[in-house]
Amino acid sequence: MHYLTIKNNQSVPVSEIPEVSYNAFLILNTGMVAENSERHCVNYFGYKLGDKIKLICCIADDAEHLIYVSSCLVEVGSEHASFTAKLLCFEKFEREIHENFGIQFTDHPWLKPVRYAHDRFDKNQNISNYPFYSIDSEELHEVGVGPIHAGVIEPGHFRFICNGEQILHLEIQLGYQHRGIEKLFIEKKKLNQLTTLAESIAGDTTVGHTVAFAHIWESLCGIKSTYDTAFSRTVALELERIAIHTGDLSAVCTDIAYQLGSSVFGRLRTPIVNFMQEWCGNRLSKGLIRPGKNKFPFTKSLANRLSELLDAFEADFTEMNNELFSLPSALSRFERTGVVSHEDASSIGAVGMAARACGVSRDIRTSHPYGLYPELNHEPIIKHHGDVYSRVQIRKSEVIQSIKYLRKLIGNIPEISEPVANQAIGKDLFSISLVEGWRGEICHCAISNSEGGIKHYKIKDPSFHNWLALALAVRNNEISDFPICNKSFNLSYCGHDL
């Protein structure tokens, strides 16, 4: 067997991951994805092992709820055939490996830097001279947006090639901000420091990323989180989903100049994040999730408060959605705008609600369940038109679904258990955790060293997959529709740049 079969939140000795030749590695992983639409790459990365580079590829089988892990050892700066020439979904993973280690993928169609990290292999590659795609034509023109934007948002550059008002091509270049988070996971030794780092990966996904880190740490330490801890994490994940989806509905309304929707949805987000502050002292849930313990147990009084809040929220949320989705001027901006086809979403490996809007059933809560999701019998909400309307509909439907889940959960609050005793992490282990954040699939991978510390830490935010979906969505749309297309995805800059 050329790969190791594991499950979500499982740790295994690194030595048990089969190491094969590069050619076998390529055929194995591209073949597994190509032959079965239920499989996709959740992570593919490299790390230094002596004077060589160890490549590890993780393919998730959503139907079997399994993850297939394989590895390969290559020389720094060596040349190899690319996975991308066979399957586009590997393109950004290989670009990052090239950027970090100088490995040349000879038939990769677009071997450009991804992040311009400080410790990149080739410092001569500068973001100021990024090689944008261009078309030489007197009839076309280019429009550059960013990296400094008119609004208070994070930096990213969007280069449009247009024929009049029609977008023919969009290239999105990120890499303007870095905190070196993956490196800090290796340098920092205290658990509280590491947890704080996890909370800072993407500010709007504090719960999602911190739960992934908590699962990794607990798995490496060989401890099992208590039922009440899993309860609190599941509640927090669904509250974060409600808050961000509602805020995004407000932003979508702002982009189509629908002031009533902008104001009402914006107001409705506030009591949700205020409840998080009441629960743990922070509106973004910082401090709530901690490995091995339930720092802020969910109590009966909190359940009563949340029940009242949800009753008031759902009535207004439903009424506002009825108004929004019966408004012809809103529907005319949503429908058939920013379409991503099922084929394109599958090809690029889209995840989360961006994939589900295109008819691709990709949801970790079902495919690789964790927490209390097995008890909730979660069913992904799928739409099929791949446009702004589908993405907005998913937000609305998932909020209603999350409310249903929360009502079920808080109807039976578990007893508070004793914290699990701190334990040292195991030596020379590989661990993986998948969590369905509100954007989609979060993946954390960790490798421990022979002293019981972190040797390598790899983070993948769903935006890593989905920025290309936005670039495809705007093709053949008018450039004036870019803001609504962009907000219908609401992807993360910092979650990408790390």
Q: Could you explain how this protein is built, in words?
A:
- By secondary structure, this protein is α+β, with helices and mostly antiparallel strands.
- It has 2 domains: 4-115, 2-Layer Sandwich (Beta Polymerase, domain 2); 181-497, Cytochrome-c3 Hydrogenase, chain B.
- 41% of the residues lie in helices and 17% in strands.
- It is built from 17 helices and 14 strands.
- Strands 1, 3, 4, 5 and 6 form a 5-stranded mixed beta sheet that branches. The chain has a 4-stranded antiparallel beta sheet with strand order 2-12-13-14. Strands 9-10-11 form a 3-stranded antiparallel beta sheet.
- The chain is globular, with a radius of gyration of 22 Å.
- The protein starts with a strand and ends with a helix.
Outline:
The protein is an alpha+beta fold and 498 residues long. It folds into two domains: 4-115, Beta Polymerase, domain 2, CATH 3.30.460.80; 181-497, Orthogonal Bundle (Cytochrome-c3 Hydrogenase, chain B).
Attribute tags:
Beta Polymerase, domain 2; 4-stranded antiparallel sheet; alpha+beta; Cytochrome-c3 Hydrogenase, chain B; single chain; 17 helices; 5-stranded mixed sheet; 498 residues; 2 domains
End-to-end separation in angstroms reads 35 Å
Count of all domains: 2
What is the highest CATH level, the class of the largest domain? Mainly Alpha
**Reported CATH architecture of the largest domain:** Orthogonal Bundle
State Rg.
22 Å
Strand tally, please? 14
- CATH homolog superfamily of the largest domain: Cytochrome-c3 Hydrogenase, chain B
CATH topology of the largest domain: the name is: Cytochrome-c3 Hydrogenase, chain B
Beta-strand content: 15-25%
| Quaternary status | single chain
**Structural class of the helices, strands and pairings?**
alpha+beta
**Which spans of ≥5 residues are poorly predicted at pLDDT below 50?**
none
What characterizes the major β-sheet? 5 strands, mixed
Q: Roughly what percent helix?
A: 40-55%
Helix tally equals: 17
